[in-house]
Amino acid sequence: MTLPKIVRHVQTQHGDDSVDVENIFLFRANVNCTRAEAPAAEVAGGSSTNVAEIGAESDVKSEENNSINGVWTYEASEDGGSQLATIAEASPVQLPEKRKAPIGAETIECKKPKLETKDPKLIRPGFSEERYDETSYYIENGLRKVYPYSFTFTTFTKGRWVGEGILDVFSREFRAHPAEEYKRSIEAGTLTVNYEKVPIDYKLKHNDLLANTVHRHEVPVTSQPITIVHMDEDILVVNKPASIPVHPCGRYRHNTVIFILAKEFNLKNLRTIHRIDRLTSGLLLFGRNSEKARQMEQQIRNRQVQKEYICCVEGQFPDGIIECNEPIEVVSYKIGVCKVSPKGKDCKTTFKRIAQAGDYSIVQCKPLTGRMHQIRVHLQYLGYPIVNDPLYNHEVFGPLKGRGGDTGGKSDDQLINDLIAIHNAENWLGIDEEVAITGTIKNPAIAVASPSPTNQSGSQAVIKSTPEAKITISTQTGHESADLRFDASKVTADPLCSECKMNYRDPKPEDLIMYLHAWKYKGVGWEYTTELPSWASIDQDNCLLSLRNRRC
């Protein structure tokens, strides 16, 4: 006998989390029930046994038919509550059948959303397989670069933006471009609200979908390959080179681990289990299905995963096990900066020096909690900041660089403002003072020191604008390799794009690495490790030579 469904009371129709046991009847299979007539029972708190009736007449047209097909009992406890009692059944209880459409009735097919619809919730770009076809890579000067491409950023209006002018919001919240650029975009109709052009003084409303179509120029990353440490049907473990973000953020989209794995390894729909900083190298775990991802995430949340990192710090780190228990507070989630503070969350990290190389120390780090930037902040507090840490090894934290929590008397607001001024979106890229030549749009991904692209005849290649194209003409899908040299024929340009008119220098080696490496992860029934990077060599001479070469 198939287990019948729960029958809801005709009047209360309970469907929420509350439960009214007196008005809900459960039919159970494979039990016996004595069929008998019984008077309608009154529900009374002092009664030991109560009886309720269910009309199970198969003729659904007669709702007033109260003939008794069975007796169901429940016992009331002394405090007035009730419990379902054991049910006996002489013959199987026949439940009313569901109403069926008449034979031959016309079947109406469910409507499907049109792809061309203007419903903001149905056409948010960037979430389909086509996102991998937006552009392609090329390798130049040891860097992985992306051909510029058109892209639409979308976001729904946040509560704090409601009632504010669209230009004011974009100028304040999105600092990647100057206010003049956003004003031009609104007037040109490339920055829209609900995919419609709006005036420059438009006030944002609840649920407005903001879409800004831009000619996107991504930041170069290292061309070092992402290596696979382990892969099976449930999990993927890779060794991430420094400088590559895990997933799209800020100025990075195709130059991220997620996109590179999809485009060059054909590994798509990966679930991010954890993250490491863009400039950090080492182990990175992905789930290949949602169940495994949840399982691994749960182990991390429950602190069942032991992590070991290797870093290189400035100064001669002391011998022995050094433990830091200072609480860490997030000063700003927006720019991602933390500091040691009594108002912070409990935090614990242990450190051990494993090698000394001149004025540098190779240190093993074991974070026992999982706070943002935990290792970096604790080492800053101890006075041994990580080499090439652009944030916590900087005078913006005061003359002592934050040692012992000393930020030079700066308030949190002052610290945030100074950090924004120093580490703005374009500062480290090194914008060349010479702006692009009139009449020719230079590719911003080309190094300033490198020669201009030429065609086979040796003459300079002129990059033509193709404003009518929605995406770049080049695509790269499956698991193709990046171009080994720049191909001018794959470049599109927007005459209104300010970045097309700028020259960028290639990032320097110290811009691409922070000397922190995720070395070993061990959880319940699994353990993964990577080889040590060259700068973390136990050989002091080789380690010192490696550090000098990378910092020169």
From TrEMBL:
**Active-site feature positions:** D277
Q: Name one Pfam family in it.
A: PseudoU_synth_2
**Example GO biological process term?**
enzyme-directed rRNA pseudouridine synthesis
Q: Which GO molecular function terms does the record list?
A: pseudouridine synthase activity; RNA binding
- List the keywords (alphabetical): Isomerase, mRNA processing, Phosphoprotein
* Positions of the Pseudouridine synthase RsuA/RluA-like domain: 234-380
**Which purpose does this protein serve, as stated in its record?**
Pseudouridine synthase that catalyzes pseudouridylation of mRNAs.
Q: What is this protein called?
A: Pseudouridylate synthase RPUSD2
Q: What is the lineage of its organism?
A: Eukaryota, Metazoa, Ecdysozoa, Arthropoda, Hexapoda
